[in-house]
Amino acid sequence: MAVKKKITPPRTEDPKEIKRWYLKVCEEINKIQKGSCTLTASGTTTTVTDVNITTSSIIVLFPTSGTAAVAVGSATGVYVSTKAAGSFILTHPNTADADKTFDYMVQN
Hints:
The chain is an alpha+beta fold. It has one domain. It is built from two helices and six strands; from the N terminus they run H-E-E-E-H-E-E-E. It has a three-stranded antiparallel β-sheet with strand order 1-6-3. Strands 2-5-4 form a three-stranded antiparallel β-sheet, with no helix packed on it. The longest helix is centred in the N-terminal third of the chain and has 16 residues, at 15-30. It is elongated. The N and C termini lie close together (9 Å).
């Protein structure tokens, strides 16, 4: 399991220290991997290939189309059902919509 880097806020009001802290936080945020995917039309699973995925990755989905938002709010929802080295599988409702698009973030 990866060790998370803790960035402690400065205990001063010195603008230079605050700026240094802010830049460290931004650097860590930029290490988060990002991607996008489209759910398989007329299917219940979609495999997303991404070299940054591990079995312990945290994957956060963001719908970027109306049909994707509807899929998230459906009775079955959209969820990560499997994680493996280099890929993850999304389980989702079976609809013919071909524009169910998502952005995602991966934190390892």
